[in-house]
C-alpha cells in the first residue's frame, strides 16, 4: 500500500481522507489490466470503478457517441456531395468501401443451464475446399473471424453457399446454440407501420448496410460461443453472423439506436429508406445520415444505392407520390409460378400471393377454393376450378392497381363486406371524382 494525498468528496459534500492507495491486477471476460485503487477506512463502502477503468475492461460501451453537424456544415456538405448519384458515391467513399464496425460490442445471452455441444467439421467437396480456405483467410484478414487454438465449449458447423459468380459465402449453423439463446424480442416494424410515414413523399433514397451483421462486434464470451469447425481447424466469429437466432433483433435494435432519431428515415434491418416531400428536405436528411454513418464507422453498399429517385423499391413494393404498387420482380415471380402438385407447393404459392393480397379485392373469397385443399381431411385433387382460380389470381396480381397511401388530412369513406369465406374492409378517398382504394 502506498501513501495517498488525494482528498475525496462524497455526494453530500463531506470530505473523505484516504488511508492509502494500491495497484491491483483486475480481469473481466479474459481482459486484464492494472487498476489503481484508493483505500478508505470504511468497511461499509463498496469498491467503485471509474469510467476509464470500466472502458478498459470492456464493461460499458458507448453506442451513440456521435458528432451532430450544425446547419451551415450540412448546407456546405449538401452543395458539395449531392448533385448526382455518381458524385454522391465519389464524395462519400469513406462510408461506401471497406468493412464497417459499430461502436461497442453486442452480447449473446444463453440459458444458465445450457449444455455445451461440440460439432466435428463436416467434409467439404474437393472442388470447394480451396475456395473455403481462401474465404477463411479473407475473413480473417478483415477481422471478422479469428483462428482458435485452444479447446472451446461450443463448436458449431458451417454451411457453405456457392454464389452464381463462383465465390462462396460461409454461414454459421448453430442449431444447438440457438436452442439455448435468450432472444431480445425486439419489435420488428411492418409495412403497415411504415405506410403513414410515406404519405405524399416524392423524393427517396435507399442505403443498404454492407455485410450488415459483420459490422457489429461481439464481446469476448459471445465470440467464443460462435466458434466453428472446418477442415482447416477451428475459428470463431468476432462479429455478429447470420444463423444466430437473436441476430436480426440485435441488428434492428442497433440500427434503430444509430439512426432512429433522424426524422424521415425508415429502418428495416439493413435497408435505410429516406423519404421526403422535396429535394431540399431529402438532402438535409441524407446529409444527417451520412454524417452519422461517418461518426459511427458504418458502411453502406455502393452497388445498392438508390439515390434521390422519384419512386423507390422497398420491402417488395414500389412507392411514389401516387401511392404503392407491387415490385415488378415479385409480380414476375407470381406470373411464372407453376400450378402446385401437392399441399406443400400450394402453401408456398399462397404464401407468395398473401404478401400481395392488398392488391386483390376480395382476396379471401377468391382463394377459398385453394385454401380448402389445405385442410387435413381433404384429399389432394387439383381440378379445373382450382386451375381457373390460380390463373385468375395471377392475372389480378399482374394487373394490380396503384394503391393510395393513407392520408389522415383527407376525408375517407369506409366500406365493408363479408361472406362465409372472408371479410373485406376498404378505406377510400375521393380525388378528382375518382376513388382510390386504400386497403382490403
The major pleated sheet works out as:
4 strands, antiparallel
Q: Enter the CATH topology name of the largest domain.
A: HIV Type 1 Reverse Transcriptase, Chain A, domain 1
- Cα-atom radius of gyration: 28 Å
Based on the coordinates given, report the CATH architecture of the largest domain. Answer: Roll
How much of the sequence lies in strands comes to: 15-25%
Low-pLDDT runs: 431-440
Number of strands: 19
* Mean pLDDT over the full residue set: 86
State the helicity in percent bands: 25-40%
Whole-number count of domains: 3
Q: Biggest sheet, strands in spatial order?
A: 11-12-8-13
Shape: globular
N→C terminal distance = 76 Å
Structural class, please? alpha+beta
Specify the CATH homologous superfamily of the largest domain.
HIV Type 1 Reverse Transcriptase, subunit A, domain 1
Protein name: Transposon Ty3-G Gag-Pol polyprotein
Pfam families: RVT_1
InterPro entries: DNA/RNA_pol_sf, Retrovirus_Pol_polyprotein, Rev_trsase/Diguanyl_cyclase, RT_dom
Organism: Araneus ventricosus
Layout of strands and helices, then pairs:
Layout: E1 8-9, E2 15-16, E3 20-28, E4 31-39, H1 51-56, H2 71-81, H3 85-91, H4 129-141, E5 145-148, E6 157-162, E7 168-173, H5 175-178, H6 191-194, E8 203-208, H7 220-225, E9 227-230, E10 233-237, H8 247-259, E11 265-268, E12 271-276, H9 279-296, E13 306-309, E14 312-314, E15 317-320, E16 323-326, H10 328-335, H11 343-355, H12 363-366, H13 368-372, H14 384-398, E17 413-418, E18 423-431, E19 434-437
Antiparallel strand pairs: 1-2, 3-4, 5-10, 6-7, 8-12, 8-13, 9-10, 11-12, 14-15, 15-16, 17-18, 18-19
Organism: Araneus ventricosus
Domain Reverse transcriptase: 142-319
InterPro entries: DNA/RNA_pol_sf, Retrovirus_Pol_polyprotein, Rev_trsase/Diguanyl_cyclase, RT_dom
Amino acid at each position: 500500500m502506498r501513501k495517498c494525498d488525494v482528498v475525496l468528496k462524497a455526494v453530500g459534500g463531506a470530505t473523505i481522507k484516504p488511508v492509502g492507495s494500491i495497484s491491483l491486477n483486475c480481469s473481466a471476460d479474459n481482459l486484464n489490466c492494472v487498476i489503481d485503487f484508493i483505500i478508505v477506512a470504511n468497511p461499509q463502502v463498496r469498491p467503485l470503478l471509474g469510467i476509464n477503468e470500466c472502458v478498459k475492461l470492456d464493461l460499458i460501451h458507448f453506442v451513440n457517441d456521435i458528432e451532430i453537424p450544425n446547419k451551415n456544415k450540412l448546407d456546405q456538405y449538401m452543395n458539395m456531395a449531392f448533385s448526382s448519384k455518381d458524385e454522391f458515391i465519389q464524395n462519400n467513399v469513406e462510408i461506401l468501401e471497406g468493412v464497417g464496425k459499430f461502436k461497442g460490442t453486442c452480447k449473446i445471452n444463453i440459458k444458465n443451464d445450457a449444455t455445451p455441444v461440440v460439432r466435428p467439421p463436416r467434409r467439404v467437396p474437393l472442388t470447394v475446399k480451396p475456395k473455403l480456405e481462401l474465404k477463411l483467410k479473407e475473413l480473417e484478414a478483415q477481422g471478422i473471424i479469428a483462428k482458435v487454438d485452444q479447446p472451446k465449449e461450443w463448436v458449431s458447423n458451417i454451411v457453405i453457399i456457392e454464389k452464381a459468380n463462383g465465390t462462396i459465402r460461409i454461414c454459421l449453423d448453430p442449431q444447438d446454440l440457438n436452442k439455448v439463446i435468450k432472444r431480445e424480442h425486439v419489435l420488428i416494424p411492418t409495412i403497415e407501420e411504415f405506410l403513414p410515414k410515406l404519405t405524399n413523399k416524392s423524393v427517396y433514397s435507399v442505403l443498404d448496410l454492407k455485410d450488415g451483421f459483420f459490422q457489429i462486434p461481439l464481446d469476448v464470451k459471445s465470440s467464443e460461443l460462435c466458434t466453428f469447425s472446418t477442415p482447416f481447424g477451428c475459428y470463431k466469429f468476432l462479429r455478429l453472423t447470420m444463423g444466430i437466432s437473436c441476430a436480426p433483433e440485435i441488428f434492428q435494435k442497433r440500427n434503430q439506436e444509430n439512426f432512429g432519431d433522424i426524422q424521415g428515415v425508415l429502418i428495416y434491418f439493413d435497408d435505410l429508406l429516406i423519404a421526403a416531400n422535396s429535394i431540399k428536405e431529402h438532402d438535409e436528411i441524407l446529409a444527417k445520415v451520412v454524417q452519422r454513418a461517418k461518426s459511427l464507422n458504418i458502411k453502406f453498399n455502393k452497388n445498392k444505392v438508390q439515390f434521390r429517385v422519384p419512386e423507390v423499391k422497398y420491402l417488395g413494393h414500389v412507392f411514389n407520390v401516387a401511392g404503392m404498387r407491387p415490385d415488378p420482380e415479385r409480380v414476375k415471380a407470381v406470373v411464372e409460378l407453376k400450378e402446385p402438385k401437392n399441399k406443400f407447393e400450394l402453401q408456398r404459392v399462397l404464401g407468395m400471393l398473401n404478401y400481395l393480397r392488398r392488391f386483390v379485392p376480395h382476396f379471401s373469397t377468391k382463394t377459398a377454393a385453394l385454401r380448402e385443399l389445405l385442410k387435413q381431411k381433404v384429399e389432394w385433387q387439383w381440378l379445373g376450378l382450382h386451375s381457373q382460380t390460380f390463373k385468375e389470381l395471377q392475372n389480378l396480381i399482374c394487373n394490380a392497381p396503384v394503391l393510395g397511401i393513407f392520408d389522415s388530412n383527407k376525408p375517407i369513406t369506409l366500406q365493408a363486406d363479408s361472406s362465409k369465406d372472408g371479410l373485406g374492409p376498404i378505406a377510400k378517398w375521393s380525388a378528382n371524382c375518382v376513388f382510390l382504394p386504400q386497403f382490403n
